[in-house]
Amino acid sequence: MSNWTSPQSLSFIPAGKLVTFTALHQAALTQYVQIINSSGSPVSFDKLEGGTASFPISGSGTTVGFFTNGAGSFKMQSGYQIQFKNSGSQTSLVSAANPNLFYINGTTYGGGTMFVTEDQGGTDYNDTSFVIQWYQNEG
């Protein structure tokens, strides 16, 4: 299965910042997500909810609405990108919301966006929802 989407930029996230994410799906096909580094290699995470895990993370089908270990965090590095795929034969379509910054009284506290995919079993872009946000400060 080599139907990864083209890499999607995460360049809106400053390097060195704490990033958290939540991945959801409700598709019949298994959905996959991976963060890749500037060399195109998958990045492993050691802070995924539920214990140590690494990408890709896979879903369990229509009866379970959440990815296994579908939430976590990592430190952003320059060149990181995101990719999606599914267990079918077609490459998923990907759409991303415009990245936003979070302001309070004129001070930037972070930002984020959402990616959604369509595994081409329909046209509604509801197969994967990947919400990613970064924080200006930690602790």
Overview of this protein structure:
The chain has one domain: Jelly Rolls, CATH 2.60.120. 0% of the residues lie in helices and 48% in strands. It has strands at 8-9, 18-25, 31-36, 44-45, 53-54, 57-58, 66-75, 81-86, 93-96, 100-104, 107-118, 128-135. The chain has no helices and 12 strands. The strands form 3 sheets. Strands 2, 7, 9, 10, 11 and 12 form a 6-stranded antiparallel beta sheet that branches. A 4-stranded antiparallel beta sheet has the order 1-8-3-6, with no helix packed on it. Strands 4-5 form a two-stranded antiparallel sheet. It is globular. By secondary structure, the protein is mostly beta strands. A hairpin with a 2-residue loop joins β10 (100-104) and β11. Mean pLDDT is 81; it is low at 46-55 and 58-66.
